[in-house]
Amino acid sequence: MGQGGQDKIFVAGHRGMVGSALVRHFFSSGHERLLLRSRQELDLLDQGAVFDFMQREKPDQVYLAAAKVGGIHANNTYPAEFIYENLAVQSNVIHAAHLAGVQKLIFLGSSCIYPKLAAQPMHEEALLTGFLEPTNEPYAVAKIAGIKLCESYNRQYGRDYRSVMPTNLYGPGDNFHPENSHVVPALLRRFHEAVQNSAPEVVIWGSGTPMREFMHVDDMAAATVHVMNLDDATYKAHTQPMFSHINVGTGVDCTIRELAETVAKVTGYKGQLVFDSTKPDGTPRKLLDVTRLKELGWEARISLEDGLRNAYAWFVEHQENVRA
Known about the structure:
- The chain is of the alpha/beta class.
- The protein has helices spanning 17-28, 47-57, 72-77, 79-99, 137-157, 183-196, 217-228, 232-237, 256-267, 291-295, 304-318, and strands spanning 9-12, 34-35, 61-64, 104-108, 160-166, 168-170, 201-205, 211-212, 214-216, 245-248, 254-255, 272-276, 285-286.
- Helix 6 packs across helix 9 (256-267) and helix 6 crosses helix 11 (304-318).
- Substrate binds at residues 190, 205, 212, 281.
């Protein structure tokens, strides 16, 4: 059916940050033939339920955005849940899609699939060339397995199952928990509270010198749909059977200091920024090579400042019941 707008599309994980961005994208482009199921309606950990759903609904396209995600603290504390739940959800959805005759599926991974010491910027072919970052290795292994599941069904059954690997994402629907969140929502919340409490300074872990890449989730959604809708010949011309995944990022990074200064500007914080260099910095740089994505005709559109303003507005509007 292609891009005519009438494909029946199943967005797995539509209530998460990425899944809800995909739903916004489809609705804004006039595509409303979506299959959406909450966890109460369809538990993706339940293999039988997923199989029955796929057989009954037979979607034309599947966007696999469902995942158990979290920051360093969560990954360190619950490694068993992170590897088990992600492996189970991926296996259930991909296998059930295949059995139901679904030809087109796209799997959303993570940039943490690459080795801890991968050359920067990280190219797709860096996959499986070195040791992973130990703190989130179980999660990364699950995501690598998802890529290989897609490649294996393509090789054996001629399916068209694709994978995209996003950089650090932020935006509406993010997790703003004070301990379990990633750096962007954590800083937005901390600076917001500093403004409310008239705090003279905000302390930020580390020296502020590490460089990171940040992408607004609405850009990620647009890129994912773009990759899904590429014709088969174009997609295969820019990928390889054993490196079928595509990096999705902005291609631009900034220092943590620059990020903090932009968050201060967006939240209206006028106090002092203090960097606690006794705290760990982590990897000096993490940037995705997005050459392949650009060759396929897509580039990020939302600037860091504009994206942060959007994410902050969402947080302020939803802070009473923001996800904990």
